[in-house]
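fyi for ur records
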Amino acid sequence: MSVAPLLDSSATLQATAVRERTVTARALTAAALERIEVRNPTLNAFTAVFANRALAEAERLDQRIAAGVDPGPLAGVPIAVKNLFDVAAEVTLAGSRINADDPPATVDATALARLKAAGAVCLGATNMGEYAYDFVTA
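which gave:
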């Protein structure tokens, strides 16, 4: 199965392909990261991309699948989180330059932790209006 078209499919189809080993979580993650690299300079959608971390998470997921461990309902599905949610070891900008010098988060936000526990792979943090107060992001 070609990976690129799979990126445009549903999370259910992506997870099924990973779970059934039609595609690896690493290949799906790498394809998504490549798409971000190509499109983000124009879209400005991501404030941070966690390429190395995401690839490592995907590889661990592939190892678990190979070992017969249930990868979870979102096995290998690439996700991004709004930069309002804490990501361990990353600064939570919340759309504000003022927060750039803040210390990094020590743990993932509950929502992210649950998504990752379900097998999702976090690719990065997305841009947003300052403190989620406006409706336009540049």
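Residues 78 and 121 are 5 Å apart (CA to CA). thats all i got for now
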